[in-house]
């Protein structure tokens, strides 16, 4: 896909041949011939032939040609595609006109986008209000010309200058991914009439004097100026940007007469597409379905051709983590700015927030607004049969291009390193490290993602969230009537009795999101973590949950845009968890917690939570100098004794009911690259099924990573040796 003749070179002398089929139109036979007609059957050297005059018009940006309603059609990418005709080549339409075309939309535009327009209005683009074009036309703006296009909710509209700026739009929205015949006509006597598939869809009297916009080019697909995306959460944090129609355009015709209802109906029936447009349903990419060998892979995750072509990346820009015997994947995709998402077996995505700041000038400062991934990247650090570690580094960014907590002397702003440690049991640990000269910020927010065509209610149950404590006590919160309230302490709550008490171990630290899937994502936090519901930016008439589409995948400068339809990828928020920050070295704070997905009852996660927040002591018998439990890696780190027997390590995990063992992991430093054989409680373990090992190269030696598939609430002895 490119803007430099995707169909190969062709000479302008071919224009008469390209347009020969147009003479078969029944309207031509009746004497109502178009004054301009684009068939889009061929594009040569970024020129689109115009069939009536025999000239050609310029196309810029990304595009491709596909099979249309007849011949070929042009696919526009929603951001860069623009076709324009010079002003002096635009016929005068002041006595009346008709415009008709075939379109198939991939998504609705971010604000009104033209099918064909020749106008001179100036948007305020004030960043101070929530008005959208054309409601925000500046008071001193000219109001001449016409605009025929599609709005952010999929409505068809004709706007024109006639003693002010007149706006006529349909109540009905245009269907997505389907051929639709659209038309608009105007005369002072008849006013404005809009048609969808040959039938009247809207009408408005318009007796004022219509005048063309002097000196303005005729533009197709893209507006004449940057326009703010519609329906912002915070107008001051939503900026004007270029965008275009997202979809297919074919057989665009402009008449210098007003066609009546019968003529429009006949034109719609004259061409009936033989095939559906080549716009398959868009799905956020998650890699190969089904179980896969445990490990991380660099991949190029394709969303759809138009979006993919906008990215200046080569091969393997994304990462997918797979697990044995499980369909669950963890996806680090540039469409989420590399924020990882846990993907369930039916392609439901569970995501999370980054480090986030906020102020009244920039709005949100976060990873979501780095829509070109200028400050965000991922890499695989470890990739062994026993463990995978992925590193995500980013700089929180605002829609205005500003950053968080900038040191005025050094110039350094906040930067974040996040480390995700995954084990074969489908459990991952997140460690967030904030480098800052300021204060500790907020790293967590429970976020579900919607595929195009999905609403939050399609993704999650109304009883959306379950909290569990270490005692296995659980409470589920419902959004059926209103947003619930979650309290750290206290017993009575909307929706019922909370069995959480105030004694140690009674406060909840386990959270499950009740997705409409067999597997459900969960998180486990350190003790004394608070939870609260995301209950603002909520439109109850639209959804039970707050719902936006400025992220993921969107390439617009906005820290919040309310969804107007389920036309593109979107997200919704349920709650916040507030894990406590830890003070690190060299001006850092860090947080850590667990992620995973399970088919089991959430109460069964209590032993796993105990094994992490209350790990059993590892007592070294021989072969090790010291050991410590590192919750940020979910493993015991064992240092070796210099001069000790190099090929053997003996230790005891002192497990009990309050300090259980659940699939433990050990990192034995300086083990070398020799084989490792394992005996547990005097029983020889089978490599692969009972345990797994991995070797991590360090500067002067290898560390051994041991992962053991075992659950126990009794002490276990471990003997690790190089000899069988």
Explain how this protein is built.
- This protein is mostly beta strands.
- The protein folds into 4 domains: 12-270, Jelly Rolls; 295-446, no CATH class; 455-605, no CATH class; 615-721.
- It has 6 helices and 51 strands.
- Strands 24, 25, 26, 27, 29, 30, 33, 34, 38 and 39 form a 10-stranded antiparallel sheet that branches. Strands 17, 18, 19, 20, 21, 28, 35, 36 and 37 form a 9-stranded antiparallel sheet that branches.
- A hairpin with a 2-residue loop joins strand 13 and strand 14 (199-204).
- It is elongated, with a radius of gyration of 30 Å.
- 49% of the residues are buried.
- Residues 1-18, 20-24 and 488-497 have low confidence and may be disordered.
Q: How many extended strands?
A: 51
The helix count comes to: 6
| Total of domains | 4
- Through-space gap between termini: 58 Å
Give unreliable regions as ranges. 1-18, 20-24, 488-497
List keywords for this structure.
724 residues; mainly beta; Jelly Rolls; 4 domains; ten-stranded antiparallel sheet; nine-stranded antiparallel sheet; 6 helices; disordered N terminus
In short:
The protein is mainly beta. It folds into four domains: 12-270, Jelly Rolls, CATH 2.60.120; 295-446, no CATH class; 455-605, no CATH class; 615-721.
